[in-house]
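Mods, move this if it's the wrong board.
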Amino acid sequence: MTPEAMKAVRLVAEAVAGTPGEEVPRRVCAAVCQGLGVDGATLSLLTDTPSRQLLAASDDAALLLEEIQFTVLEGPCISAARTGEPVAVDDLRQELTPWPLFGAMACEKLPGVGSVYALPLFFGDYVLGSVDLLATRPRALGEDALEQASHVAHAVTAALMPTRRDAAHGERRPGVGAGAGGPCPLVRHLACRRSPGGPTADQP
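Not the wrong board. Structure tokens:
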């Protein structure tokens, strides 16, 4: 593991230590951004239903990235969770992606995003979900950096395991379940949590 990856793993561990459960996903997102030098991150988990849970998004652009994927039902996050392999879109503005609907909508709605990466979150052989990364610059993570980022994904999995157990048993913590106003319009049971300063699921 490179020093950069070790630093990112340490930041994730520090973000969890002594943190209330409902704050863990947001703080993990911030730690991942800082540790990997990207501009945004999201965390989403698979559930025992066809729906997914979006646990946290670092900012509005990251949340919009997830909204696009959940709307068109394709994209790097969904592919990473389905295949169990890291997914890289090194140049979102110039690269022809394998997902025509996602590619077109992302370019239209996220003109400031240069690259997107998605890493599966594993527990043993089981894919729990994925972490999405975005950067304003193209090719933010080279091949070696993306491989090292897998170590960070393992640290994220360890940090989120209590949250995943709650989701699997239908328990809701603040920031994990839908807002008090009802299910999020993205997907039933999809949690819509943003970092402080952004609207939550129960806001219009």
